[in-house]
Design a protein that fits this description.
Largest sheet: 7 strands, mixed
Number of strands: 14
Helix content: 10-25%
Strand order of the largest sheet: 1-2-3-4-5-6-7
Radius of gyration: 21 Å
Number of helices: 7
Low-confidence stretches: 1-6
Order of helices and strands: EEEEEHHEHEEEEHEEHEHHE
Shape: globular
Strand content: 25-35%
């Protein structure tokens, strides 16, 4: 994993895990958007960030303006760029109000946007090329959900594990299939949520982009919960058992500098557990 900072809100900040690459920008109450570059998937769009525009699929966790307010801008810009219709996914109850907002902007601009709105709710999936995106339940002040991105990969069947190459070739030459497709969960994105989402989190993932808005005693756990957010104190004792190889913290409060956050994490976690936990790159 190698984080790489980019210089501006326009370009976003880059983070990678092995051969999976992300661009994003996330500050609590200001803007949150994470792009999975490998597939062109966007998870929340903030106020509409330039690095969002050339993608094709947009997944909204909820519709607070710092997560979803930029949809009309993005669709308008895509129209100017003559890009194909965008696909925007959200909880069913947000589709009608979002369409009203988009229609209003089209009227104001006297310009039609090419787009499709899709309703998706927890446990439902959409398959796009070689990836499957599945919604999972989260708990915020308003209705919300997160998303898991999975990919099917071929692997040797368990019953053939440990056989030599020649033995496998002999079985294959008999016309028997020795491989099977297995779904592998690459990463998950929570959007805004309280800690309860972990109680029903559906499966282990390589990377969990998890909102953790507050990390010190300046803001209490109770205050974090009152606004539908997570405090570090709520999960630090269970960090080892959170089902992810990497926990990447997003949506941190703007009151914290990156250096301050790193110091808190260094004091809270040690050894391999500290290596498991990272900050999504920040510009301050």
């Amino acid at each position: 994993m190698t984080p790489e900072l980019a210089p501006s809100l326009s370009a976003g900040l880059r983070w990678s895990y092995h051969d999976h690459h992300f661009i994003g920008y996330t500050i609590a109450g200001v803007t949150t958007s994470i792009v999975y570059e490998n597939a062109g998937f966007v998870f929340d769009v903030g106020q509409g960030l330039p690095f969002n525009i050339p993608r094709n699929h947009y997944f909204l966790s909820h519709c607070h303006s710092d997560h979803a307010g930029g949809i009309p801008y993005i669709l308008s810009q895509r129209g100017l760029w003559t890009l194909p219709p965008a696909h925007v996914y959200m909880l069913p109850e947000y589709c009608a109000p979002m369409k009203t907002i988009i229609d209003t902007w089209q009227t104001i601009e006297d310009f039609s946007y090419p787009y499709h709105l899709h309703a998706i709710r927890p446990t439902e999936s959409v398959t796009i090329d070689k990836y499957t995106v599945t919604a999972f339940a989260t708990k915020h002040r308003v209705n919300s959900q997160g998303y898991i991105v999975s990919q099917k990969k071929k692997r040797l069947m368990d019953k053939y594990q440990g056989l030599s190459r020649d033995e496998l070739l002999a079985i294959k030459n008999k016309g028997e299939e020795i491989n099977e497709e297995k779904s592998h969960a690459l990463f998950a994105f929570t959007g805004d949520t309280q800690i309860e989402f972990l109680d029903t989190f559906p499966q282990p993932v390589d990377v969990l982009f998890m909102e953790t808005t507050f990390i010190d005693d300046v803001r209490s756990v109770e205050a974090a919960r009152a606004w539908g957010h997570i405090h570090l104190d709520e999960w630090k004792e269970r960090a080892l058992h959170i089902p992810a190889k990497k926990i990447v913290l997003i949506h941190l409060s703007s009151r914290y500098s990156t250096k301050y956050c790193q110091n808190i994490l260094d004091k809270t976690f040690t050894g391999p557990l500290r290596e498991k936990i990272e900050l999504f790159p920040r510009a301050f």
